[in-house]
Amino acid sequence: MTLGDFILLVPFVLLLGAMALAPVCAPGWWLRHYAKVALGLGAMTAGWYAFALRDWHSLGAAAHEYFGFIALVGSLFVVSGGIHLGVKGEATPLKNVIFLFIGALAANILGTTGAAMLLIRPWIRMNKYRVTAHHLVFFIFIVANVGGCLTPIGDPPLFLGYLQGVPFWWVAKNCWPAWLLANGLLLGIFYALDRKNFLRAPRPVREKETASETWTIDGLPNLFFLAVILGAVFAPSPGREILMAAAAVGSWFTTKKSVHAANGFNFHPIQEVAVLFAGIFATMIPALAWLDHHAASLLGQNPSPGIFFWGTGVLSAGLDNAPTYLGFLSALRGTSGTAEISELLASHAPQVLAISLGAVFFGAATYIGNGPNFMVKAIAEQNGVKMPSFLAFVVKFSLPFLLPVLAIVWLLFFRG
Predict the structure, then answer these.
(1) How far is 137 from 184, CA to CA, in rounded Å?
(2) What is the CA 357 to chain-centroid distance, rounded?
(3) What is the DSSP code (8-state) at residue 147?
(4) Could you tell me which residues come within 8 angstroms of residue 119 by beta carbon, excluding any fewer than 6 positions away?
(5) Residue pLDDT, tens place only, 101-138
(6) Is 159 helix (H, G, I), strand (E, B) or coil?
């Protein structure tokens, strides 16, 4: 890496460092100034590309990806906020496992963002008498990430692969064994943790079942707007973003105020995500450019699937997983000398599978690995749940619980 490359990466490193340390060391300061930090560092990188390098193509590509990302995430946030799921009683560990498994299935139909935004509030209400960090972290692991690897709708990296020419059903056909293994292991770990938490709760909490609580759903007209957003995913840009924005506006003005009130809905979570990811998308332009230029030389000739699994995964945890997926898919094309996706799938299917699973699974490792993660954190904190900091998320949950699951997936599917 040259000195120039390093200097261009400084704003990205500073932003990641601020997001990791500032909420712990100076939470009040960060809450007041996070927008200035993120947008300021993003403006530094964007200004350099615009006025020094005159690289408008890279800026335009990053802006296009950001607005596509925020249109999808924002519209799903608004529409899901107009649907209220009423829950009954206090959830047992088994009920929680069933709920998370349903969420993992729903992530492939609604996308990880749609499933997470629809289910996070009822998930918190189900566990309101004993909710702890592990409830939210494993929700992020399963519903917001690992659950969504069976269809291109499930997670943004897979949708980008679909746009590149990966057949729609190739994902389900090739990913389902790893999906079943990873989700099964995570659900098993969660059950053990949640049972311990449940048994520590007072008996009235464990047996709480009130007549006033029942399973209900309100805001059903928003299912139409949800269908519009999912259909818009397959439309070309900018029609895609226009349809998503129209669905969000329609949902906002037609949803009863009582539904928004019951959900405690406001725009702060999506505002925080929009600001922070604007900084991330801008500052990571040089990081992705460096990856695109050097990945093939770093990977060597005919790299094994395991290298793609860990390489895509580790960088997906630190960068947004969608552009990382494209970077490693491009690197695979370069090392294989194959441009056509159909030929690539015929000759290097294990490597493509490794890139797909690495991007989706490792997106769960940090708050910034995948779009829904930070939104779940923001909504949980808005509902009074104390969430782990950026570093605590990694050290207390990703390393001891998620990493062993990822290592088992590697051993069984990619080690050879």
Answers:
(1) 16
(2) 13
(3) G
(4) 85, 99, 103, 106, 139, 143
(5) 999 999 998 889 889 988 999 999 889 888 999 999 99
(6) helix
